[in-house]
Design brief:
Length: 416
Amino acid sequence: MKHPGYKTVPENDKKVNKKKVMEAFKLAEKIKSVLRERFTKEEAIKQESQRKEQEEINKRLQIQLQIEEDKKRIESENRKAEDERKKLEEEEKLRKLKEEQERLIAGGGVGVAAAGTAVGPAAGIAAGIGSVNSISDSISEVTPSPGPSLDIGQTGIDQISNHLGPPPAYSHVTPPESHIIPPGGTSGQYLPGATKVLPPVIPNRDLKPVNTGSEIPSVDRSNKPSVDHFTSTGIESTNKFGLKDVIVSTDLVEKFILLAAKNTRANTETCAILAGKLSKNQFTITHLIVPKQTGTPDSCSTTNEEEVFDYQDNHDLITLGWIHTHPSQTAFMSSVDLHTHCSYQLMMPEAIAIVCAPKFDETGIFGLLPGYGLNFIANCKQSGFHPHPKDPPIYDECSHVKLISGIKVTVADMRS
């Protein structure tokens, strides 16, 4: 359908308009081609960034799994060593008990009645009851009396006789009446032919040396060294989670925002590693390490991480967290940020995440809440951007961070 006034338009004007329309179509196709190429490249960069990010997450999870496996292996080895130690202790106790029993037998502490009845301590040893201490006490405090019947057989009697040697000639011995106990009789009576049992000679316990306490060394427990771990859960602390304090310089964020300004203007995220030292039971961030990286408006991935590892190793630095910008958003922890920070906090409970939002002039210092928050993210299997529940909260501002001025912060920018 043509415009009603189309026929009234001069032919030259029609040709000019038609030519302009065709040029516009050609330009539109050219723009479409350029946009298609641009969007294809951007999508490829985004997918590559997501792939590297996932690889990094998988690498960190693998490291954590290896740590857990090593921990379980060490615990298993410790349990085996403890079981072996207990076994050796039991064997040593049995060996000592057996030696004590043999010593008592060799010293005349066993009497055998004519009718095969064990007397006094012999009954306890033969039946396998009581300890050596109770046997010694019973010998020293109780007059020997007939014990329970024990059928050890002729072989057992012969073995005991051979061990003790020939019995003494009791017919030529006149023991004191207090030591004569005839079968079925009372103390003080003597019947010819009855077995006479003399108790073993027990040393006087008054001769045992008395421990005056001078041999016990005195220990001054005030000299005991204080705890000096990297991880400090459980020690006395000013925060409710029992973590060491992390000291952050007041100008650290300003320095980072300045070196990230170019990327911020290009709506690209920038990230860096926070590293430092442990001194006087607290961590201090002394170095800001900016690795080689690629970024998008809502993500940032590091490359050549071995340079960071070498730098930290050469300067004896501890990884205490990370810092990154949100060039067009507020200061909060996205789902990707939470998963990234989880690896830091699993290896160092005090690790922090600083988020800078220059556009809104906001800065937040965050950490996963120990317990629920850390466990929830560690067990979350989703990747990329995805929702997390907000009640109860998963992360919060760190209570163990102290901002102090005058602390020197070294910037190591590896991007150039």
